[in-house]
Amino acid sequence: MIKSIGIRALIVLAVCLVALFYLTPSVMTDRLPPFWKNNLPADKIHLGLDLQGGMHLVLEVQTDKALEGTIERMANDIKETMMEKKIRFRGIARTQKDSITVEFPDHPAREAFEKILKDNYPDFEPASASQRDGKEIVQIKLKAKRAQDIKKLAMEQGLETIRNRVDQFGITEPEIIPQGEDRIIVQLPGIRDPGRAKNLIGKTALLEFKLLDEEHSLEEAMRGNIPEGSIIAYGTHLDRESGRRTQVPYLVKNKTLMTGASLETAKVSIADRFGEPYVSLKFNAQGAQDFDRITAENVKKRLAIVLDGVIHSAPVIQERISGGNAQITGTFTMDEAKDLAIVLRAGALPAPVTILEERTVGPSLGQDSIDKGIWSTIAGLMLVILFMMIYYKISGLVANLALILNIIIIFGTLAAFRATLTLPGIAGIVLGIGMAVDANILILERIREEIRGGKSPRASVEAGYTKAFLAIFDSNLTTLIAALFLFGFGTGPVKGFAVTLTIGLIANMFTAVFVTRIIYDYFIWNRKIQTISV
Amino acid sequence: MAFVEFIKPDINIDFVGKMKLAFSISMAMIIITFASIAWHGGLNYGIDFAGGTLIQVKFNVPFTIDKIREAFQPLGIENSIIQQFGPQEIVVRVGEGTTDLKSLSGKVEEKLNNTFGQNAVEMRRVEMVGPKVGKDLTKKALLAIFFSWIGILIYVGFRFEFRYAAGGILALIHDTIITIGAFSLLNKEFDLTIVAALLTIIGYSINDTVVIFDRIRENARKNIKKPLAETINDSINQTLSRTILTAFTVFLVLLSLFFFGGPVIHDFAFALIVGVIVGAYSTVFIASPFVLVWDKWMPSKFRRKK
To answer: What pLDDT does residue A29 have?
Structure first.
């Protein structure tokens, strides 16, 4: 223990000033002088989404789907290679999420396949082989390491894509944090249209160009006889007079000619005729070349523009298009068109995402919570201050001083460490107010005991602090253990509460023991008071 | 010198003598808790643990719950739980988490605006917890409670003796169970914030208990010859004033949270109020007397020497 009252007072003053220093931006809000803003920490206390309003999402990137997609593409690739090399096979398909099964009519074909597998597809390893009815069936499996890489890459790309989309949506201070292997936490403060934001973030946005199958009849396909290599997909049709949207079926070829990956940019434009918004696309160099070739080969055929499996439009290719420009028309509102342009620019998600958890708080509820938080803090504080003054008189006043200092330190620490203040966090502070005076109650009860025992004020204070200290230390530390577990395992509301409770407990050891002692020592040593008002 | 005193300094209540009565009362409360949980078929888990969607809506126009149910009919959620939440607000709880993007909240807003007129409602809060996350949260909550017990057991065992630690933990388990019991009896919703409250109660109750243990430790050193029962009783009496004063100040701030904190933390404050009362009781009647029971059962080496 430092003996000098002066040095101890200086320490307290320093702590106080540092806390106030960090608090200034929060209290001064807009009146902060410019030199402060430029040179000193200007961070305000960061409010949680429950206080400022906003949306908190936990997304899961379905990395398994990305893996399946990759295997699907590889199977196609192997199929083409085998056709090129004239290897005879009966069938090839993806079975399970990470393996491909191939059927061969005879042994030489299988051996030829195994050779190209070894030479061209080192990522695969044979998983099993069997013979049935004279056919040879081989199952190949993607190597576990490679499968892991694909999943990891899907997660990374997903994170990057979502980050891009959110950035372009124009929200201040969004937070996008990866969690675990396949989860992404998205926090959007102050969002006004949560539905739109969710749509924007969660849309896979896989843009594909496919040819319409015009050789076969749609009616026949609708009856169930879908021709090989084609599928039925739907689009929507807006009836201009009634404003009703109806579903329209199309028969499209399975093969994807191009995807949105070759886009350079996408933006919203307005059509002259109806003033309707549409999205104009510009391809990159490779994309423009491909598009040129595709349109040249398919003049007078209909090209379907498919987004996430839904057909947006299927215009007839009138002539070869060489400029690398295209447009997606459809039945958009302005917002829908804007959002589509954003997701196309940001790129497709490598795998679909699902929302695991959502917590959205409207701005008015946030403000209500702040008001109520402030009120309950003030009310709780007043009650405790009043009680301490009645019960312990001047000593109560000293304890109250420590209590107020405690609160200043809590807020100062929150600002300094950029911790987030939430509604449960405010509850933690309010509870901390009740518990903070406990240390002083312990000390003061001890001092009273000593005075009753007939000791002088000086000896009573000395003994009171010494004897109470161990109890305060042990009891606060055990509570701190509970608080740390709250913090470690806590999510959302629990964590916010643990933060303020922990800061409060630590600050309490300082204010209730160290700070109050200085005041007593000053009056007893320097002023030589003979009685203590306790 | 005159002090303001709630508890006179010469107070001498025979707490240890009332041990059997206290143990019986506690046992009864614990049995009631389990009976109530069994009766209700488990706790009334909130969406944090059960999964589901919670939507808080503020009405700018008069409304009736029946009319809201009617509006919900096309969505197939007319049988979900709809509760009044403050004067102009309701909370709707739908069992299953919907993971589709155009989620339930948008549809609810649309239907309510159709029924009650444009801008009749304001979406105040939407919470959706999928089943996967619900399981995660449940696991984490249980782990948090369990490990905090272990952590405290180790610390108290290290600072005092193991039997103190055992008494302290027993009191904590006691407090946790009875607070859960209060929630079960009133059929209040049990969610994440209530787990936070339970952990706070654990923190508070052990704080309270350790102060008495500290006194027992001090008194035992001062007078080794005195029977443990007397030492414990003296210690509880000597710290009684502090036990009640601290509980009282915490109680004051909790009342303020309960009345001014708003509906979101209403149940949280309620849990703490129950916990602080039970915690103070268990500190005095359960934790310390248990040390005595342990001592009769398995006397400490230190004491046998006398």
So the answer is: 67
User: Could you give the CA distance from residue A153 to residue A147 in angstroms, rounded to a whole number?
Assistant: 10
Q: Comparing A32 with A502, which gets the higher pLDDT?
A: A502
Count the helices and strands in chain B (H runs, E runs).
11, 4
Contact residues on chain B for A372, CB-CB shorter than 8 A: 260-262
Q: In what order do the strands lie in the sheet with A263-270?
A: A263-270, A277-283, A325-328
Q: Does residue B143 lie within any of the structural domains?
A: yes
| pLDDT tier at A278, thresholds 50, 70, 90 | confident
Any long-range contacts for A6-14 (C-beta under 8 Å, 24+ apart)? A8/A514, A8/A517, A8/A518, A8/A521, A9/A518, A9/A522, A11/A514, A12/A405, A12/A514, A12/A515, A12/A518
B129-188 residues touching A, CB cutoff 8 A: 129-130, 132-133, 137, 140-141, 143-144, 147-148, 151-152, 155-156, 159
- A194 vs B144: CB contact, 8 Å cut-off? no
Model confidence at B262: pLDDT above 70: yes
Identify from A381, A388, A481 which residue to disrupt to test chain B contact, counting B C-beta atoms within 10 A and taking the largest count.
Answer: A481
Asked if residue B204 and residue B144 are part of one domain, the reply reads yes
**pLDDT confidence tier of residue B304, bands split at 50, 70 and 90:** very low
Residues in chain A with CB shorter than 8 Å from the CB of B106 are: 195
Q: Confirm or reject contact between B56 and chain A (CB < 8 A).
A: yes
Q: For this complex, say whether ipTM is above 0.90.
A: no
Domains A63-147 and A203-359 share a fold: yes
**Which residues, in sequence order, are CB contacts of B96 under 8 Å at separation 6+?**
B51, B52, B53
**Residue A467 touches partner B, C-beta closer than 8 Å:** yes
For residue B69, the enclosing domain spans: 63-127
Which CATH number does A63-147 carry? 3.30.1360
Same domain, B284 and B300: yes
Same domain assignment for residues B193 and B250: yes
Residue A87 is predicted with a pLDDT of: 83
Q: Is the pLDDT of residue B25 over 90?
A: yes
Q: Which of A299, A309, A260, A303 is nearest to A282 (CA)?
A: A260
Last residue within a domain, chosen from B78, B96, B127 = B127
Name the A residues in 485-514 with CB < 8 Å from any B CB. Answer: 485-486, 488-494, 497-498, 501
The Cα of B72 is separated from the nearest Cα of chain A by a number of Å equal to 19
Give the number of domains in chain B.
Answer: 2
For helices A63-84 and A144-169, angle between their N-to-C axes, nearest 10 degrees: 120
Q: Return the number of CB contacts < 8 Å for A and B.
A: 240
Residues of A in contact with B242 (CB under 8 A): 438, 441-442, 445
Residue B53 domain flag: no
Fold held by A203-359: Gyrase A; domain 2 (3.30.1360)
Claim to verify: residue B91 and residue B39 sit in the same structural domain = no
Show me where the domains of chain A are located.
Answer: 5-53+362-526, 63-147, 203-359
Give the closest-approach CA distance of A52 to chain B in angstroms. 12
Q: Are residues B191 and B72 in the same domain?
A: no
Which CATH number is B235's domain given?
1.20.1640.10
Per-residue tokens: A220: 């026949």
Report if residue B203 sits inside a domain.
Answer: yes
Determine the Cα–Cα distance for residues B103 and A176; give it in Å rounded to an integer: 21
pLDDT above 80 for B60: yes
Angle A54-A56-A58 from CA coordinates, rounded to 5°: 165
**End position of a domain, from candidates B94, B127, B160:** B127
Q: Do A198 and B203 touch (CB under 8 A)?
A: no
B103 and A195 in contact by Cβ < 8 A? yes
The model's pLDDT over A94-124, given as tens digits with 9 standing for 90+, comes to 888 788 888 888 888 888 888 888 888 888 8
Please provide the CATH number assigned to the domain covering A5-53+362-526: 1.20.1640.10
Of the partner residues B3, B125, B127, the one whose CB lies closest to the CB of residue A448? B3
pLDDT of residue A264: 86
Report yes or no: A369 and A48 within 8 Å, Cβ to Cβ.
no
- Per-residue pLDDT of A255-268, as tens digits, reads 888 888 888 888 88
B-proximal residues of A, 411-430, CB under 8 Å: 423-424, 427, 430
